[in-house]
């Protein structure tokens, strides 16, 4: 399980990018990969946990959830 912080997320378009803790390329995130109840969105700077998969254009976040405190 990787960890990182939300670089930006556009709720209207339903996607954004996560900066991975420890370096590496930013990871694309789509709203459908966010695991939470209600409206699935992320806030800039929010800490998250996720799995890294391979999307059509590069690394893509899967099973995204807010990091436990």
Oligomer: single chain
Give the low-pLDDT segments: none
What is the radius of gyration computed over CA atoms, rounded to a whole number of angstroms?
11 Å
What order do the strands of the largest sheet run in, or round the barrel if closed?
Answer: 3-2-1-4-5
Give the terminus-to-terminus CA distance. 15 Å
The residue fraction in helices comes out at: under 10%
Overall shape: globular
Strand content: over 45%
Subcellular location: Cytoplasm
Main location: cytoplasm
GO molecular function: DNA binding
InterPro entries: Cold_shock_CspA (IPR012156), Cold_shock_domain (IPR050181), CSD (IPR011129), CSD_CS (IPR019844), CSP_DNA-bd (IPR002059), NA-bd_OB-fold (IPR012340)
Write the layout of secondary structure elements.
Blueprint: E1 2-10, E2 15-20, E3 27-30, E4 47-55, E5 58-66
Antiparallel strand pairs: 1-2, 1-4, 2-3, 4-5
InterPro entries: Cold_shock_CspA, Cold_shock_domain, CSD, CSD_CS, CSP_DNA-bd, NA-bd_OB-fold
GO cellular component, one term: cytoplasm
Keywords: Cytoplasm, DNA-binding
Task: Write up what this structure looks like.
The chain is an all-beta fold and 69 residues long. It has one domain (2-66): Nucleic acid-binding proteins (OB fold (Dihydrolipoamide Acetyltransferase, E2P)). It has strands at residues 2-10, 15-20, 27-30, 47-55, 58-66. A five-stranded antiparallel sheet has the order 3-2-1-4-5, with no helix packed on it. A hairpin with a 2-residue loop joins strand 4 and strand 5. The chain is globular. The relative contact order is 0.30.
């Amino acid at each position: 399980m990787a960890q990182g912080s939300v670089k930006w997320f556009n709720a209207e378009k339903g996607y954004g990018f996560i900066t991975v803790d420890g370096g590496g390329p930013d990871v694309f995130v789509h709203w459908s990969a966010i695991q939470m109840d209600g409206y699935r969105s992320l806030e800039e700077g929010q800490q998250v946990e996720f799995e890294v998969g391979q999307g059509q254009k590069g690394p893509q976040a899967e099973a995204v959830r807010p990091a436990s405190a």
